[in-house]
Amino acid sequence: MTSRTLIIVSCAGAIFASFAAAQSTGGLPNGNYIPHLGDIMGTMQLRHFKLSFAGKLRNWELAAYEMDRIKESFQDAATLYPGIPVSDMTVMAEPVRRLGEAIQKKEPNKFASAFSEMTAACNGCHQSIGRGFIVIKVPTSSPFSNQVFDPAARP
Ligand code: HEC
């Protein structure tokens, strides 16, 4: 093994070790990486999109998965940024509960109405917190050409 290969191999080892550390500390490597609220929200926007398309195409397995990820983002935002109004965070609870139910029962109409309700709650908080210029809407087309959302098209 050349010394260059050795360096590459040991760097990869360090990266995997830090992933392992991140997992054991609940996602915060060494306990000192705190994502910016804007970054948590950017991720939330991504999940909001994927959840919408999964539900629209009745890919309930994927929808349940994305729903869990969106809940994680809410938890991260609420835990790491307690300054954001709790009341605005709790208004998400009801739409999230209804979305979960629609996914479990595989009901597209209930999913669509709960999804619109959740989207309105996203904007409600943005308005109340002086970020009314960040307007979220139910997506109509996919910016992702690298992921399949239609369960029928699954390889
Ligand atoms: C309880 C309050 C609250 C809720 C609920 C909320 N947001 Fe936010 N959001 C914020 C705040 C505060 C910011 C501004 C963050 C900053 O400037 O650092 C923000 C910023 C954003 C941004 C801008 C980030 C960027 O990189 O452009 C997006 C997108 C966003 N939110 C999406 C969402 C979506 C989607 C939902 C609902 C699924 C949601 N937010 C729900 C408080 C909230």
Automatic annotation (TrEMBL):
One of its GO terms (molecular function) is iron ion binding. GO terms for biological process: electron transport chain. Residues 1-22 form the signal peptide. InterPro entries: Cyt_c/b562. Keywords: Signal. This is Cytochrome C. It comes from Nitrobacter vulgaris.
